[in-house]
Amino acid sequence: xxxxxxxxxxxxxxxxxxxxxxxxxxxxxxxxxxxxxxxxxxxxxxxxxxxxxxxxxxxxxxxxxxxxxxxxxxxxxxxxxxxxxxxxxxxxxxxxxxxxxxxxxxxxxxxxxxxxxxxxxxx
Length: 123
What we know:
The chain has strands at residues 3-7, 10-13, 18-25, 33-39, 46-51, 58-60, 68-73, 78-83, 92-99, 111-113, 117-122. The protein is mostly beta strands. Strands 2, 4, 5, 6, 9, 10 and 11 form a seven-stranded mixed sheet that branches.
């Protein structure tokens, strides 16, 4: 129902920065809750950052607070993840996520995921 395409991943040295983009198509996502998850080798997928539709409230995993910033530009149907001061432990596949609720906790009619983009941070 909604297609997400991530871009901006790559190889970067520790301390560097990357900006991930997630472009949605098929529907407008301005009223959807959006977020980013990541999965490191041998580990479960974990929450990284989220952003609501109502009041644009953001949330972050403790491991990325102060370094990562999630934002959205509704006119472009796009969500971003600015990643600064990257560490080797940030390495993994980053996935964009969305659900058609204005705030977390509401029952979503559907949710959707992007295909993922690889982020590798070297020491």
